[in-house]
Amino acid sequence: MTFSQTLTAATGAALLVSALLPTQALAQSSEQDAFMAAIAKHCGKAYAGKVVSTDAADADFANNYLVMHVRECGDKQIKVPFHVGEDHSRTWVLTKTESGLQLKHDHRHKDGSEDKVTMYGGDTADSGSASWQSFPVDDYSINNFKENGLTQSVTNVWHMGINDKVFTYQLTRENRNFKVEFDLTKPVSTPPTPWGHE
Questions:
Q1: Residue 55 in contact with residue 186, Cβ under 8 Å?
Q2: Where does the signal sequence lie (predicted)?
Q3: 8 inside domain
């Protein structure tokens, strides 16, 4: 067999192997990479938001000035503080993992110490899309919620969406739908450093 024939045979075998591999992982990586890239494009910028859900439980949020700040952007992780009026305790932490994306909520007190309910969240269960990802609650968070009497939160699913005009943050569970939309077309002044961060 000539070198050319050997090369052709090897190429054909490689194509056959790639065709037999699961395509979901490839699509998942591509779609979730695009989702993270869409957020990272706004790194350093802050945007005002408003509550668009109608649950009575959302009144405290709806009556405050809401700002998201795409503050830290790395190859595998993005940190987005979510400011609610003068409350600078919340930071969304999005991380690329081997199986998809992970969302955690870093909650701090004003002195920088961790809240007893912190780093809760979940991991994606599917590839989602370049504009929408969902994060069902993980076991760590379920245990943390139960330990602190937040049993209503053990079925939480968090969602994030992004397009050219709007970033969406949403929490859903039975009898609960909290949704905030941020206007990406109008950057606002950068908010203060979130509590517990430098």
A1: no
A2: 1-27
A3: no
> Based on the structure, what is the number of domains in the chain?
1
Which residue, among 121, 84, 125, 86, has the nearest Cα to 106 in the 3D structure? Answer: 121
Does residue 9 belong to any structural domain of this protein? no
Report the chain (198 residues): mean pLDDT per 10 consecutive residues: 42 38 50 97 98 88 95 97 97 96 98 97 96 98 97 97 98 94 98 94
Report the pLDDT value the prediction gives residue 136, as an integer from 0 to 100. 98
Q: Is residue 15 part of a domain?
A: no
Identify any residues that bridge with 57 across adjacent strands, giving them in sequence order.
none
Residues 192 and 195: their CA atoms lie apart, in Å, by 9
pTM of the model: 0.85
Q: Where are the beta strands (DSSP E) in 28-115?
A: 46-51, 66-69, 72-73, 77-84, 87-96, 101-107
Specify which residues 79 forms β-bridges with: 72, 93
Residue 121: how many CB atoms within 10 A of its CB?
21
Domain, as residue range, for 60: 23-188
